[in-house]
Hints:
By secondary structure, the chain is mainly alpha-helical. The chain has helices at 3-7, 13-31, 35-58, 71-78, 86-105, 119-141, 145-153, 179-188, 196-203, 208-220, 237-251, and strands at 163-166, 169-172, 194-195, 224-226, 232-235. The protein has eleven helices and five strands; from the N terminus they run H-H-H-H-H-H-H-E-E-H-E-H-H-E-E-H.
Amino acid sequence: MSQTAQAIIDIPDCLYKPLIDEYRNIIRNYMERKWTPSELSGGKFCEIVYTILDGFSSGNYAPYPIKPDNFVAACRRLETNTSNPRSFQILIPRILPAIYDIRNSRGVGHVGGDVDPNYIDASAVLSMTSWVMAELIRVFHNMPIHDAQKLADSLVDRRTPLVWQSGDIRRVLKPDLTIRYQILLLLSSSSTPIATADLLRWIEPSNRSYFYRILRDMHSSRLIELSSDETILELLPPGMIAVEQFITSISQ
């Protein structure tokens, strides 16, 4: 059993699996710039989380996700469960309707909406669902929020349309890109640090010395974090911004 499964072991499998699947869908579609599917998954995610909170409160979990007739009213009823952790009683029940409303009222869930789905809406869905996932893990596993967020991040590998993956192999599908951009894209495709040896294997640079020189330069520029022994790499926030800007530029 994975560490993540252990972290939320109290959630029945009939709800745990749909929860993870929808969260992964949100992140995958976001990274592939599929804004509408990302937000639709946000709506489904809300229904699953509502069912989990309702079961946590009553001690009796439903065998499948519930879609209340009046979602906002159902979430408000969760606020009456004063014995629950505050995030389960107040914060999440108030966040879920906001995510749900983006799905229903912003042109995502229905044809002919007044506002087309876009990057900002999808970004809001991603941020809020990520926080909810981290909070579920924090409460069920009784861990600090920082550790819970790291564990939530480890649930998924980020996907970009330029990175192909099969087993433990990843390839940038535009080999004419500079090594710098290949490094950024490959690091962005993983939610966890990557071994330098794996990156070498995936890029296959003709000049290893030049490759390491680029890594050190990117580390100095704070695009990546390179371990002191140069064996582990991790993408830093400025590096993720550079990846998003690059993907946006080539998809326009």
